[in-house]
Amino acid sequence: MTSLEQVLSGPRVIHPLDDVPELKCDPDRLGRMALTPTVRWSLLALRGYLIVMMMLVGYRVLGSLGMF
Amino acid sequence: MPPATEPGGRTFGARWTHRLLSFLVVAGPGLIVMVADNDAGAISTYTQAGAQYGTRLLWVLLLLLPVTYFIQEMVARLGIATGRGHAAMIYRRFGKWWGRFSLFDLLLVNFLTLVTEFAAVALAADKLGVSPLIAVPLAAAALVGLVGTGSYRRWERMTLVLCGLDVAWFVLAVLTAPDTATVAHDLIVPGVPVGGVTPDLVFLVIAIVGTTIAPWQLFFQQSCVADKRLRFSDLKWARIDTLLGACMVVGLGVAMMLVGNAVHQAGLDYTDPAQMAEALVPTIGTAGKTLILLMMVNCAVLGATAVSLSSAWAWGEVACWSHSLQMKMSEAPGFYASYAACVALAAALVLVPGAPLQAIIVSVQVLAGIMLPSAIIFLQLLLNDRELLGEAFVNKPWNNVVNWTVIAVLFALSLILAAQVLAPDLFPSPLP
Which of A15, A25, A42 has the CB atom closest to B25's CB atom? Predict the structure, then answer.
């Protein structure tokens, strides 16, 4: 028996789309993420970063309007 | 000699064939996301780097290989664990505000990126003697046709063929006959080009990083993994798929930089990739020029399909529409309509005479700079979400050390890039 035949007659390789769907980790039953110190500080840093970027955009817009 | 046999009675040959087949059915999302990342903007950035600095910035690409792998591996892991896209996860776990912010930013930057892809198609078609008025609508129709077959597998196979065509960049790199010893040296040994560290050099290095790790990639691969319904047991193959993709994206980047290096070697001027193709005719011939222009179109089409799909998937996830390539157009009208609308609008904008393409390109850089750190922060937090993922899929401590380092560097680079684009006056004039 050749290798390929063995594969075909042995444990089958099933394409994920043809397989039975798995029960995945479901975020819907959990709601929002708990605000641990890491999460809180990360989101705070992200907000700070976005504020700085918005200020830069404002600086650019005001500059292009000839205010500097 | 009889073949060695496993306890289960299967030969080692059979075991390896089984593994290869297992990999082949899983492979796709990682390769596609990485190869599609070498889109029109990437060609422009890499060839410009080669044209300006020769092979001196090749090491940056090699450095980016593990970074791209680590980030995209997290995305694949999260997609397999949850079966959801990145936009859906942000929306569910961080609330509506962050979910809508991420979606809006993604849709905006993706649309503008799409415009640059069609601009590249128009530019290359024009040099090939085909009117952009024909080429751009044709490319848009092909892009809609590519996804509208109602079969994920058909879309994936066709897209992988387009990815395969990109190997032509390696042929083009060989045609330019670079000095292999210099290439090997500059790839491994970090160095600064002649002229020292200038704002231009910093800008270009940041652009290379920003081109190689784009925000849409995170959203695309996770949604693609979810749409393909990869199983928990597929994770190891998805990791290999992602690693191969990371090697491809860096390899293709090196090849593009080497083509740009030919301009540097010949002392020619560089304006854009299409002009470069014409300028290199004495080195690579007319066939080489045509190949570069065709590759521009191919890369732009690949980038366009991936970028548009990441938008359509994300929109569908947040709006709770049906959103799968496995569905027919009638079964997922919102998903296909948003994809087609993005493609059609971007194509139409490129054909408008006097469209502000330069302003759009700058906006893409800035918005991508804003988007990338926020998308990666959410990814890192989600991969540490033990309540959701359990111990099996959360990051290991060493994962976190590597990822927080990458995030800190990307934050700094994105900030510098956006500041340079938005407020160039804040930066000193070139160093001596």
Answer: A15
